[in-house]
Write a structure and sequence with these properties.
- By secondary structure, the chain is an alpha+beta fold.
- 61% of the residues lie in helices and 12% in strands.
- It contains seven helices and four strands; from the N terminus they run H-H-E-H-E-E-H-H-E-H-H.
- It has a four-stranded antiparallel β-sheet.
- Helix 1 (3-64) packs across helix 2 (78-92), helix 1 (3-64) runs antiparallel to helix 6 (199-250) and helix 6 runs parallel beside helix 7 (266-288).
- The longest helix is centred in the first third of the chain and has 62 residues, at 3-64.
- It is rod-shaped, with a radius of gyration of 39 Å.
- The model has no long low-confidence stretch (mean pLDDT 85).
Length: 289
């Protein structure tokens, strides 16, 4: 096998190993960055929902308190306000969602589905967990969800959710007596869940990864071409010339041209040594003749 082929195979092996490791690490970093970007969007949505809840609780509920005696107004309920405000966002960004998923809700639309029930149960099993992050498959692709527990920290909430008899008659007239009761103080009854699609950031990360890998491959191809050119001009071509001269001299052609020594590198030293050996050979042959 020729020297140039051996050098190219060695370089290809080193590049292949380096590209594999770099590709894996780059993909990992890009995917993590995409996930962090989506998580930041989910956190922003969650904070917006919490702000809507807080605003409703502090400023809207007191204004509507007297009206509640004759007519129950869902707009005064913090969870209803947060859900309604995000329903407008959902109309534009249909893969983004917010839900106050509850095991036993007053409003039927807040009832948990199977995967949400698992989230709520996990939060109940770990009462010290401030939030939970996970991924799930949806018809539109992978989605990241951020969940925070809904815990009854204010005992005043139990006036509507302890027993039907304690709840406002106007609320029972709207929602009935079957759901949303039996809650206990400090109990985790549900979860605020924000879902954000992963498709766009992940696709962008994949495109960036392909661009980086393509750039690295093209860069290596250019380097390989330059290395081959340098090896040919600085090493292989002078060595082949020495071989041709040596073959000619060994065949008895003592008048073959000498090797032209240029510079002071190792090839020049080899050429100088070869010329001296040739002159010595010529002298020895002349003495024998």
């Amino acid at each position: 096998m020729k020297l140039l082929i051996k050098v190219n195979l060695a370089l290809l092996a080193v590049f292949g190993a380096g590209l594999t490791v770099t590709g894996y690490l780059t993909d990992h970093v890009l995917q993590e960055n995409a996930r962090r970007e989506v998580l930041s969007h989910a956190s922003l949505m969650m904070e917006a929902a919490s702000a809507a809840r807080s605003y409703t609780s502090r400023e809207i509920q007191p204004l509507l308190k007297t009206m509640q005696e004759t007519q129950f107004l869902p707009q005064s309920v913090p969870s209803y306000a947060a859900t309604q405000s995000f329903s407008k966002l959902h109309e534009i960004y249909q893969n983004y969602s917010y839900k106050e998923a509850t095991l036993n809700p007053t409003n039927p639309r807040d009832r948990v589905v199977e995967w949400e029930a698992d989230v709520v149960r996990n939060l109940r099993d770990h009462p010290g967990m401030a939030e939970m992050v996970g991924e799930r498959a949806t018809p539109a692709g992978q989605s990241l969800f951020l969940a925070r527990p809904i815990q009854i920290k204010d005992a005043a909430c139990l006036s509507c959710h302890s027993t039907p008899s304690a709840a406002p008659a106007s609320m029972r007239a709207l929602y009935g007596d079957a759901n949303g009761f039996g809650w206990k103080h400090q109990e985790i009854v549900g979860s605020q869940i924000v879902s954000v699609p992963l498709e766009v950031p992940v696709a962008q990360a994949n495109r960036t990864w392909k661009l980086i890998m393509t750039g690295m491959a093209l860069t290596f191809a250019c380097i390989l071409a330059l290395v081959n050119l340098a090896l040919w001009s600085m090493l292989l071509r002078p060595m082949r010339k020495i071989v041709r001269i040596a073959d000619a001299v060994s065949a008895g052609q003592l008048d073959a041209e000498p090797f032209a020594v240029r510079g002071s590198d190792e090839i020049a030293m080899l050429g100088g040594a070869f010329n001296r050996m040739r002159r010595s050979l010529e002298k020895a042959m002349a003495m024998l003749g």
